[in-house]
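Need residues for this backbone.
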């Protein structure tokens, strides 16, 4: 796996520091006495970010899962997002925080936002680890952003290419011949 990596953009120490900081920003937004927080991770890219983030969040919460696919197989260009597994928990009148790995074209979070708003949550916010600012659409905002990155395809820390590299501990770019 290491031999496929061209360069590391954000190493695991940098990720750990920023994720801890983000947890502080998020915790400040949701007072502990205010019950009914539901985190909705978008599977599977957000799993490592989610696991690290929630262990720094002190408040009571539930987790609901959603699966959205935008990449089929060995492609790096975002396609139309489609919901492959819907939310498995009731969010009516709950504070909902969507967790995703990366905000690119915004198709994924636009679809997720539409689906979740139909269920009348009390509040709806979004936290993403990464954002590609060159493409970020004005109608899809993330309330919490870990890092802004340039417009290149990244892997690691949960993000895959054709199913691989989710377990690579850093955010990295593959060698050109691997795409
Ligand atoms: P969007 O729908 O905003 O274009 O893309 C969001 C989804 O596409 C993310 O949840 C992620 O799964 C995938 N994605 C976007 N950019 C990248 C990238 O650079 N690397 C990887 N591995 N996935 C990406
Ligand atoms: Mg995704």
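Answer:
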């Amino acid at each position: 796996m290491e031999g496929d990596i061209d360069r590391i953009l954000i190493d695991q120490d940098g990720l750990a520091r920023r994720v801890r900081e983000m947890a502080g920003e998020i915790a400040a937004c949701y007072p502990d006495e205010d019950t009914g927080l539901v985190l909705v991770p978008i599977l599977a890219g957000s799993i490592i970010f989610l696991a690290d983030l929630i262990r720094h969040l002190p408040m009571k919460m539930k987790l609901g899962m959603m699966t959205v696919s935008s990449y089929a197989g060995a492609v790096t260009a975002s396609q139309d997002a489609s919901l492959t597994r819907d939310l498995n928990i009731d969010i009516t009148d709950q504070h909902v925080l969507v967790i995703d790995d990366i905000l690119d074209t915004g198709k994924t979070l636009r679809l997720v936002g539409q689906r979740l708003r139909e269920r009348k949550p009390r509040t709806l916010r979004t936290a993403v680890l990464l954002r590609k600012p060159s493409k970020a659409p004005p109608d899809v905002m993330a309330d919490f952003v870990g890092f802004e990155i340039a417009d290149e395809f990244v892997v690691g820390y949960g993000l895959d290419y054709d199913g691989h590299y989710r377990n690579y501990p850093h955010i990295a770019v593959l060698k050109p011949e691997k795409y």
